[in-house]
Design goal:
about 325 residues; alpha+beta; Phosphorylase Kinase, domain 1; Aminoglycoside 3'-phosphotransferase, Chain: A, domain 2; 5-stranded antiparallel beta sheet; two-stranded antiparallel ribbon; about 45% helix
Length: about 325
Protein backbone atom coordinates (compact mmCIF):
# COMPACT_ATOMS: atom_id res chain seq x y z
CA UNK A 1 0.00 0.00 0.00
CA UNK A 2 2.98 2.30 -0.39
CA UNK A 3 3.08 4.45 -3.53
CA UNK A 4 5.39 2.64 -5.95
CA UNK A 5 3.41 3.51 -9.10
CA UNK A 6 2.90 7.24 -9.73
CA UNK A 7 -0.39 8.08 -11.45
CA UNK A 8 -1.62 11.19 -13.22
CA UNK A 9 -5.19 12.44 -13.38
CA UNK A 10 -5.46 11.03 -16.91
CA UNK A 11 -4.29 7.60 -15.72
CA UNK A 12 -7.00 7.49 -13.07
CA UNK A 13 -9.76 8.95 -15.24
CA UNK A 14 -9.01 6.38 -17.94
CA UNK A 15 -9.25 3.61 -15.36
CA UNK A 16 -12.54 4.92 -13.94
CA UNK A 17 -14.27 5.52 -17.29
CA UNK A 18 -15.72 1.97 -17.64
CA UNK A 19 -16.76 1.92 -13.97
CA UNK A 20 -18.59 5.16 -13.27
CA UNK A 21 -19.81 8.40 -14.79
CA UNK A 22 -18.81 10.32 -11.68
CA UNK A 23 -15.98 12.82 -12.30
CA UNK A 24 -12.71 12.53 -10.43
CA UNK A 25 -12.40 15.37 -7.93
CA UNK A 26 -9.35 14.39 -5.92
CA UNK A 27 -6.87 11.59 -5.35
CA UNK A 28 -3.98 10.95 -3.01
CA UNK A 29 -1.44 8.20 -2.55
CA UNK A 30 -1.34 6.25 0.71
CA UNK A 31 2.18 5.90 2.09
CA UNK A 32 1.54 3.13 4.62
CA UNK A 33 1.95 -0.52 3.69
CA UNK A 34 4.44 -2.88 2.11
CA UNK A 35 3.31 -4.74 -1.00
CA UNK A 36 1.08 -2.63 -3.22
CA UNK A 37 0.31 0.92 -4.33
CA UNK A 38 -2.88 2.46 -2.94
CA UNK A 39 -4.74 5.66 -3.78
CA UNK A 40 -7.81 7.17 -2.15
CA UNK A 41 -10.15 8.64 -4.76
CA UNK A 42 -12.96 11.18 -4.33
CA UNK A 43 -15.62 11.47 -7.03
CA UNK A 44 -18.25 14.08 -7.81
CA UNK A 45 -21.91 13.85 -8.81
CA UNK A 46 -22.78 11.36 -11.54
CA UNK A 47 -23.38 12.73 -15.01
CA UNK A 48 -25.56 9.75 -15.91
CA UNK A 49 -28.15 8.17 -13.66
CA UNK A 50 -28.30 5.77 -12.05
CA UNK A 51 -24.65 5.37 -11.03
CA UNK A 52 -24.09 2.96 -8.17
CA UNK A 53 -20.41 3.76 -7.68
CA UNK A 54 -19.76 5.37 -4.28
CA UNK A 55 -18.09 8.75 -4.10
CA UNK A 56 -15.16 7.49 -2.04
CA UNK A 57 -13.06 4.74 -3.60
CA UNK A 58 -9.81 2.87 -3.01
CA UNK A 59 -7.58 2.07 -5.96
CA UNK A 60 -5.06 -0.73 -5.35
CA UNK A 61 -2.33 -1.55 -7.86
CA UNK A 62 -0.81 -5.00 -7.51
CA UNK A 63 2.94 -4.55 -7.73
CA UNK A 64 3.96 -8.21 -7.48
CA UNK A 65 0.89 -10.31 -8.27
CA UNK A 66 0.10 -11.70 -11.73
CA UNK A 67 -3.24 -10.73 -13.25
CA UNK A 68 -4.66 -14.24 -12.85
CA UNK A 69 -3.94 -14.18 -9.13
CA UNK A 70 -5.63 -10.80 -8.74
CA UNK A 71 -8.68 -12.14 -10.61
CA UNK A 72 -8.97 -14.95 -8.05
CA UNK A 73 -8.62 -12.47 -5.20
CA UNK A 74 -11.26 -10.11 -6.59
CA UNK A 75 -13.73 -12.94 -7.16
CA UNK A 76 -13.25 -14.16 -3.59
CA UNK A 77 -13.79 -10.67 -2.18
CA UNK A 78 -17.04 -10.38 -4.13
CA UNK A 79 -18.15 -13.81 -2.89
CA UNK A 80 -17.55 -12.78 0.73
CA UNK A 81 -19.36 -9.49 0.20
CA UNK A 82 -22.30 -11.37 -1.36
CA UNK A 83 -22.39 -13.59 1.74
CA UNK A 84 -22.99 -10.49 3.86
CA UNK A 85 -19.52 -10.22 5.34
CA UNK A 86 -17.87 -6.80 5.94
CA UNK A 87 -15.67 -7.08 2.85
CA UNK A 88 -15.75 -4.35 0.17
CA UNK A 89 -16.32 -6.03 -3.18
CA UNK A 90 -14.34 -4.59 -6.12
CA UNK A 91 -16.25 -2.63 -8.76
CA UNK A 92 -16.92 -4.38 -12.07
CA UNK A 93 -17.27 -2.93 -15.55
CA UNK A 94 -20.19 -3.65 -17.89
CA UNK A 95 -18.59 -6.97 -18.84
CA UNK A 96 -18.30 -8.08 -15.22
CA UNK A 97 -14.53 -7.59 -15.09
CA UNK A 98 -13.14 -6.49 -11.72
CA UNK A 99 -9.44 -6.47 -12.57
CA UNK A 100 -8.28 -3.48 -14.60
CA UNK A 101 -4.90 -2.35 -15.92
CA UNK A 102 -2.82 0.65 -14.90
CA UNK A 103 0.61 1.11 -16.50
CA UNK A 104 0.58 -2.58 -17.35
CA UNK A 105 -0.20 -3.68 -13.77
CA UNK A 106 -3.41 -5.27 -12.48
CA UNK A 107 -5.57 -2.99 -10.35
CA UNK A 108 -8.74 -3.13 -8.26
CA UNK A 109 -11.17 -0.34 -7.42
CA UNK A 110 -13.37 -0.84 -4.36
CA UNK A 111 -15.57 1.28 -2.08
CA UNK A 112 -13.66 3.09 0.63
CA UNK A 113 -15.08 2.02 3.98
CA UNK A 114 -15.40 4.19 7.05
CA UNK A 115 -13.47 3.55 10.23
CA UNK A 116 -9.96 3.37 11.58
CA UNK A 117 -7.40 0.70 12.34
CA UNK A 118 -7.50 -0.03 16.09
CA UNK A 119 -4.11 0.81 17.58
CA UNK A 120 -4.74 -0.95 20.89
CA UNK A 121 -7.62 -3.37 20.39
CA UNK A 122 -9.92 -4.38 23.22
CA UNK A 123 -11.93 -7.53 23.77
CA UNK A 124 -14.83 -6.23 21.66
CA UNK A 125 -12.51 -5.68 18.68
CA UNK A 126 -10.99 -9.14 19.06
CA UNK A 127 -14.41 -10.77 19.37
CA UNK A 128 -15.59 -9.05 16.20
CA UNK A 129 -12.54 -10.25 14.28
CA UNK A 130 -12.91 -13.79 15.62
CA UNK A 131 -16.56 -14.02 14.61
CA UNK A 132 -15.98 -12.54 11.14
CA UNK A 133 -12.96 -14.73 10.49
CA UNK A 134 -14.97 -17.82 11.42
CA UNK A 135 -17.80 -16.68 9.12
CA UNK A 136 -15.30 -16.28 6.27
CA UNK A 137 -14.04 -19.79 6.97
CA UNK A 138 -17.57 -21.15 6.88
CA UNK A 139 -17.99 -19.62 3.42
CA UNK A 140 -14.66 -21.18 2.40
CA UNK A 141 -15.67 -24.63 3.63
CA UNK A 142 -18.92 -24.40 1.67
CA UNK A 143 -17.17 -23.37 -1.53
CA UNK A 144 -15.28 -25.39 -4.11
CA UNK A 145 -13.13 -22.33 -4.90
CA UNK A 146 -9.39 -22.93 -4.61
CA UNK A 147 -6.37 -20.92 -5.68
CA UNK A 148 -2.79 -20.72 -4.41
CA UNK A 149 -1.65 -18.03 -2.01
CA UNK A 150 1.41 -15.94 -2.81
CA UNK A 151 2.46 -16.76 0.77
CA UNK A 152 1.81 -20.50 0.78
CA UNK A 153 3.79 -23.03 2.80
CA UNK A 154 5.77 -23.83 -0.34
CA UNK A 155 6.64 -20.13 -0.58
CA UNK A 156 7.61 -20.12 3.10
CA UNK A 157 10.01 -23.04 2.76
CA UNK A 158 11.56 -21.69 -0.45
CA UNK A 159 11.92 -18.14 0.87
CA UNK A 160 13.44 -19.26 4.16
CA UNK A 161 16.02 -21.23 2.17
CA UNK A 162 16.70 -18.20 -0.04
CA UNK A 163 17.18 -15.92 2.95
CA UNK A 164 19.39 -18.50 4.63
CA UNK A 165 21.63 -18.67 1.56
CA UNK A 166 21.76 -14.87 1.38
CA UNK A 167 23.05 -14.52 4.95
CA UNK A 168 25.26 -17.62 4.95
CA UNK A 169 28.50 -15.63 4.57
CA UNK A 170 27.54 -12.81 6.93
CA UNK A 171 29.01 -13.44 10.41
CA UNK A 172 26.54 -10.89 11.85
CA UNK A 173 23.69 -13.22 10.85
CA UNK A 174 25.02 -16.47 12.27
CA UNK A 175 22.26 -16.72 14.89
CA UNK A 176 19.58 -15.93 12.30
CA UNK A 177 20.90 -18.64 9.99
CA UNK A 178 20.89 -21.22 12.77
CA UNK A 179 17.35 -20.29 13.78
CA UNK A 180 16.16 -20.50 10.17
CA UNK A 181 17.68 -23.97 9.79
CA UNK A 182 15.90 -25.17 12.92
CA UNK A 183 12.57 -23.75 11.78
CA UNK A 184 12.91 -25.21 8.29
CA UNK A 185 13.50 -28.67 9.77
CA UNK A 186 10.51 -28.26 12.08
CA UNK A 187 8.29 -27.08 9.22
CA UNK A 188 9.24 -30.06 7.06
CA UNK A 189 8.37 -32.45 9.88
CA UNK A 190 5.08 -30.67 10.65
CA UNK A 191 3.68 -30.40 7.12
CA UNK A 192 2.20 -33.94 6.85
CA UNK A 193 0.04 -33.35 9.93
CA UNK A 194 -0.76 -29.81 8.86
CA UNK A 195 -2.01 -31.02 5.48
CA UNK A 196 -4.69 -33.10 7.24
CA UNK A 197 -6.30 -30.08 8.92
CA UNK A 198 -9.33 -28.33 7.36
CA UNK A 199 -8.30 -26.14 4.42
CA UNK A 200 -10.04 -23.41 2.45
CA UNK A 201 -9.46 -19.87 1.20
CA UNK A 202 -7.90 -17.86 4.02
CA UNK A 203 -7.17 -14.15 4.35
CA UNK A 204 -3.57 -14.83 5.37
CA UNK A 205 -2.77 -11.32 6.62
CA UNK A 206 -5.50 -10.23 9.03
CA UNK A 207 -3.44 -7.78 11.06
CA UNK A 208 -4.90 -4.69 12.70
CA UNK A 209 -3.99 -2.56 9.69
CA UNK A 210 -6.25 -4.73 7.53
CA UNK A 211 -9.45 -4.08 9.49
CA UNK A 212 -11.48 -0.92 10.08
CA UNK A 213 -13.64 -0.10 13.09
CA UNK A 214 -15.95 2.66 14.17
CA UNK A 215 -15.72 2.38 17.92
CA UNK A 216 -16.27 -1.31 18.66
CA UNK A 217 -18.10 -1.91 15.37
CA UNK A 218 -16.19 -3.72 12.63
CA UNK A 219 -16.83 -1.91 9.34
CA UNK A 220 -14.46 -3.69 6.95
CA UNK A 221 -11.84 -6.38 6.45
CA UNK A 222 -9.52 -5.34 3.64
CA UNK A 223 -6.38 -6.30 1.67
CA UNK A 224 -6.86 -9.88 0.49
CA UNK A 225 -3.64 -9.97 -1.51
CA UNK A 226 -2.24 -12.79 0.65
CA UNK A 227 -5.44 -14.82 0.30
CA UNK A 228 -5.42 -18.34 -1.07
CA UNK A 229 -5.96 -21.94 -0.09
CA UNK A 230 -4.43 -22.81 3.26
CA UNK A 231 -5.14 -24.26 6.70
CA UNK A 232 -7.95 -22.37 8.39
CA UNK A 233 -6.19 -22.68 11.73
CA UNK A 234 -3.19 -20.74 10.43
CA UNK A 235 -5.48 -17.83 9.54
CA UNK A 236 -6.76 -17.70 13.12
CA UNK A 237 -3.23 -17.95 14.54
CA UNK A 238 -2.04 -15.06 12.35
CA UNK A 239 -4.82 -12.87 13.74
CA UNK A 240 -4.16 -13.92 17.34
CA UNK A 241 -0.45 -13.14 17.01
CA UNK A 242 -1.22 -9.54 16.09
CA UNK A 243 -4.49 -8.61 17.77
CA UNK A 244 -3.95 -10.46 21.04
CA UNK A 245 -0.35 -9.56 21.86
CA UNK A 246 0.12 -6.48 24.06
CA UNK A 247 3.52 -5.09 25.00
CA UNK A 248 5.21 -8.09 23.34
CA UNK A 249 3.30 -10.59 25.50
CA UNK A 250 0.20 -12.69 24.72
CA UNK A 251 -2.87 -11.21 26.37
CA UNK A 252 -5.15 -13.90 27.82
CA UNK A 253 -8.29 -11.74 27.84
CA UNK A 254 -7.89 -10.67 24.21
CA UNK A 255 -7.03 -14.21 23.13
CA UNK A 256 -10.01 -15.63 24.95
CA UNK A 257 -12.37 -13.08 23.39
CA UNK A 258 -11.23 -13.90 19.85
CA UNK A 259 -11.20 -17.67 20.29
CA UNK A 260 -14.59 -17.72 22.02
CA UNK A 261 -16.17 -15.62 19.27
CA UNK A 262 -14.57 -17.78 16.58
CA UNK A 263 -15.75 -21.03 18.19
CA UNK A 264 -19.29 -19.65 18.52
CA UNK A 265 -19.49 -19.48 14.71
CA UNK A 266 -17.21 -22.33 13.64
CA UNK A 267 -16.21 -25.16 15.94
CA UNK A 268 -12.56 -26.12 15.47
CA UNK A 269 -11.96 -29.83 15.10
CA UNK A 270 -10.16 -31.81 17.84
CA UNK A 271 -7.15 -32.06 15.52
CA UNK A 272 -7.09 -28.28 15.09
CA UNK A 273 -7.27 -27.75 18.84
CA UNK A 274 -4.38 -30.18 19.35
CA UNK A 275 -2.35 -28.42 16.65
CA UNK A 276 -3.00 -24.93 18.06
CA UNK A 277 0.41 -24.32 19.74
CA UNK A 278 2.18 -25.28 16.51
CA UNK A 279 -0.12 -22.99 14.49
CA UNK A 280 0.90 -20.00 16.63
CA UNK A 281 4.55 -20.87 16.04
CA UNK A 282 3.97 -21.30 12.30
CA UNK A 283 2.20 -17.94 12.07
CA UNK A 284 5.14 -16.18 13.74
CA UNK A 285 7.60 -18.02 11.48
CA UNK A 286 5.65 -17.02 8.37
CA UNK A 287 5.93 -13.30 9.11
CA UNK A 288 9.48 -13.44 10.44
CA UNK A 289 10.57 -14.98 7.14
CA UNK A 290 8.58 -12.51 5.02
CA UNK A 291 10.13 -9.58 6.88
CA UNK A 292 13.61 -11.07 6.50
CA UNK A 293 12.88 -11.40 2.79
CA UNK A 294 11.84 -7.74 2.57
CA UNK A 295 15.08 -6.82 4.33
CA UNK A 296 17.06 -8.94 1.88
CA UNK A 297 15.31 -7.35 -1.11
CA UNK A 298 16.07 -3.87 0.23
CA UNK A 299 19.77 -4.81 0.50
CA UNK A 300 19.62 -5.99 -3.11
CA UNK A 301 18.19 -2.65 -4.23
CA UNK A 302 14.64 -3.83 -4.91
CA UNK A 303 12.05 -1.27 -3.78
CA UNK A 304 10.10 -2.74 -0.88
CA UNK A 305 8.89 -1.03 2.27
CA UNK A 306 9.32 -3.68 4.96
CA UNK A 307 8.71 -4.08 8.67
CA UNK A 308 11.31 -4.89 11.31
CA UNK A 309 11.68 -8.69 11.63
CA UNK A 310 12.98 -8.45 15.21
CA UNK A 311 9.56 -8.26 16.87
CA UNK A 312 8.30 -11.31 14.97
CA UNK A 313 11.45 -13.25 15.84
CA UNK A 314 10.85 -12.45 19.50
CA UNK A 315 7.29 -13.72 19.20
CA UNK A 316 8.47 -16.86 17.41
CA UNK A 317 10.89 -17.60 20.23
CA UNK A 318 8.13 -17.00 22.75
CA UNK A 319 5.76 -19.36 20.93
CA UNK A 320 8.48 -22.01 20.93
CA UNK A 321 9.48 -21.59 24.55
CA UNK A 322 5.96 -21.26 25.99
CA UNK A 323 3.47 -23.20 23.84
CA UNK A 324 -0.10 -22.06 24.46
CA UNK A 325 -2.62 -24.93 24.24
CA UNK A 326 -6.17 -24.39 23.06
CA UNK A 327 -7.95 -23.06 26.17
CA UNK A 328 -10.22 -25.67 27.72
CA UNK A 329 -12.56 -22.88 28.79
CA UNK A 330 -13.40 -22.00 25.20
CA UNK A 331 -16.89 -23.15 24.27
CA UNK A 332 -16.69 -25.30 21.15
CA UNK A 333 -20.04 -27.08 21.47
CA UNK A 334 -22.49 -24.72 19.73
CA UNK A 335 -25.45 -26.33 21.56
CA UNK A 336 -24.12 -24.76 24.78
CA UNK A 337 -23.98 -21.21 23.39
Amino acid sequence: MAVYTKLSRIDIETLLAPLTSRPLLDWRGVSAGVENTTYFLTLGEASAMPDCAPRELVLTIAEHHPREGVIHISQWQRALAAAGLPVPGPLADAGGRCVHAVQGKPALVAPRCSGRHPHRPGTAHCAAIGASLAAMHQVALGSDTAFPSSRSLDWLAATASEVSAHIANDPRSEDTGAQLSQELAWLAAARPALSQLPHGIIHGDLFRDNALFEGDQLTAIIDFFMAGTGPLLLDLAIAINDWCVADSQPDAALTGAMLQAYAAVRQPTPAEQAWWPAALRLAALRFWVSRLADQMHAEQGRPRQGKDPASMLALLRLRRASPQPWPQSIVTDRSRI
